[in-house]
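Chapter summary example.
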Amino acid sequence: MSLGWSRYNTLFKSELSGRFFYNALTNTLVELDTSRFTSLEALRDAKTGMALINESNFLALLQKNKVLVEEGEEARLLLARQYQRHATCFDSSRLGLTICPTLQCNFRCPYCFEHSQSDSFVMSSETVDRLIHFIESYKDIRHLSIAWYGGEPLLAFDIICDITERVKSLDLNIEDFGMVTNGYLLDADKISRLNDLKITSIQITLDGPEKLHDTRRVLAGGGTTFQRIISNVDNLMNSDYKGVCAIRVNVDKTNRDEFIGLQDELLERYKGKKLMVYAGHVNTSLDHSYEHSSSLDLQEWTDFTFDQHRCKSKAPSANFYPSGNRDSICVATSHQGFVLGPHGELYQCWEDVGKADMVIGNIHEKEPITNPVLQARYSIGSDAYNNAECRECSVLSICGGGCANKRLRAKQFGEDGLEFCSSYKNNLTTYLEAYSDALRSKEICAAVLSPGIQSDNKPEFRDITSEKKSLEEKLRPKITALSQES
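The structure predicted for these 486 residues follows.
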């Protein structure tokens, strides 16, 4: 059997924590002693020299984790991964809906990607009827998830209540309901109804401390919003609400230095509550009126991520381990995932809301999907496994191709200036070293605090792949996964 060096391998040294190999195809990280690391370096550089690996158990580990592969094995594994992606995209047991009961918004945020904030139309009872019929038409679904979106969905709270009660009467397993809201209208009465509405996750946006926030997220008619939102979050956190709250802070060059302070303040304010605070990347299209020089490019965003760690001086543990949506599966790529506008119009992606040329159909039509080509462009056309450049990329198996919307706009619509690659592409070793150093620091602390444990007594090699999800990953609502500029 002829074995060769995988192109998905990364060897690196850390001054603090030692020597490692990582394989992106299996997303595995293994710590090595000096002699085995040197052997792998020689093997990597010569592309031969299997005689250097003469231990059966170590060789078995390398084969298991695809550090050493047979000829053609990686191509076969990529094909299997692509098959799994297609199977997930075309899963007929799930229906995922993002519902915009109105596109109207009571805020005028300068970076918002939507074009219809002034549209006061609210979903009619006839459209609600058609929506229920649309859901019932999917006979094979066993799981239904709904995200309330807009505009500002709480401007149409009665519609949300009506749809929810009607959906609850259907014989379906409701997987989860979530909501993206600016939080301004989330008063005590609405909070008291969240549990009955089965809303298990809420995303609310703040853009910095009060003075800065109030220059960015202003009312449509003018006026501040910070204190009202904070008061509502206070009420939410002190209520009997059973779900989780995610506070998103939209970050660009104008407020990045304020994020850490706001995050610390909010986490202390709501200590012990089911709440997380995370940074969202403001990344507008080139034809947007927002000042593009304010946006952080991909490398600047990556640097910002590591700056957070350095400023807080906390071990990130699993936070820096390569993870996430490895196949770029989202509502946009799902055959049974739709974004519904207030007129019954259907889109594939949240970012397409309000754009007439991106409508794929309407639930009022006998055959709701009227633009299957656009639907196919999202699910199949944005598939990174079909792209020769991506197939050669050493991080494809942990990146999955990035944002489907940006890939579509860049690769098929010719839009310039869109960055859709993962930050792992140019910073993989930095992420892995941060993770391994954090793990080593925790082990040293444990050794100091626990008599009898010798921190330097390390095995010849050991798998330190991250398996546990970070607290942020556990609490982050699914509706934030697309990183909307909401």
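To summarize the output: Residues 468-486 have pLDDT under 50 and may be disordered.
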